[in-house]
Design a protein that fits this description.
C8orf32 fold, alpha+beta, six-stranded antiparallel sheet
Length: about 220
């Protein structure tokens, strides 16, 4: 969940880094850290990426959304990582098959990039989510992944709370706060980036990038 709007967003272009991803190294780390079950999950993940790479964007969205929603159990950071707000790498999420909304969203984002999705189609989106339906008085900070066919298109929402991918207009339970990818930050539903320099402030992103690089996404 969103705890603060502080820290430094690392100026790393993931689409460049991902071309050098070391899948063998990732499998080795999975084996050492987490054991055979994690190795099997990572192998399935790599197979998924290979299968999706030649497909159209919409097919990639559904497959990646299902892969993580069906395998990963939602668990709050404090129970999963013993920290109040921790952003897990895709390997960490697959290693324990547990995560919170940021972990689902990060894993889907990186996987789609690895499968050849251009970064400009994707944003990690912080929202306020009404818990229990659109009429619920209870809301909490939440993260989803949004897909834009064009920069001005209505986004599709990939969410761990519901299995189906829906257009933003059909998610009245979500109120946009801000979104980002490796190239910029947008406020609310604006189509113009508030910053084209990912050195803008955003908590925990640079640490996540550094840890992913150490695991083989580099």
């Amino acid at each position: 969940m969103l705890k603060q709007f502080a820290g430094v967003l690392c100026a790393v272009t993931l689409t460049t880094a991902l071309a050098n991803t070391d899948y063998d190294g990732i499998l080795t780390i999975a084996k050492v850290r987490y054991g055979d079950q994690a190795v099997a999950t990572v192998q399935d993940w790599q197979d998924l990426i290979n299968e999706l790479t030649p497909l159209k964007n919409e097919a990639k969205l559904e497959a990646v959304n299902d892969f993580f929603n069906e395998r990963v159990l939602f668990v709050d950071d404090i129970y999963n990582w013993k920290e109040s707000d921790y952003w897990a790498t895709p390997l960490e999420t697959m290693g324990v098959l547990k995560g919170d909304c940021e972990d689902f969203t990060i894993a889907k984002y990186i996987t789609l990039l690895l499968a050849g999705m251009p970064m400009e189609h994707l944003r990690l989106f912080y929202v306020k989510a009404k818990i229990g339906g659109t009429n619920s008085p209870i809301s909490q900070a939440h993260m989803v992944l949004s897909y834009y066919e064009k920069s001005t298109s209505e986004p599709l929402i990939l969410d761990n709370l519901i299995p189906d991918i829906k257009a933003a207009s059909n998610r009245s339970d979500l109120t946009p706060v801000f979104s980002f990818n490796s190239a910029g930050i947008w406020v609310g539903t604006s189509t113009s980036a508030a910053s084209n320099d990912p050195a803008s402030k955003l908590s925990r992103w640079s640490d996540l990038i550094e840890r992913m690089q150490k695991e083989g996404i580099q």
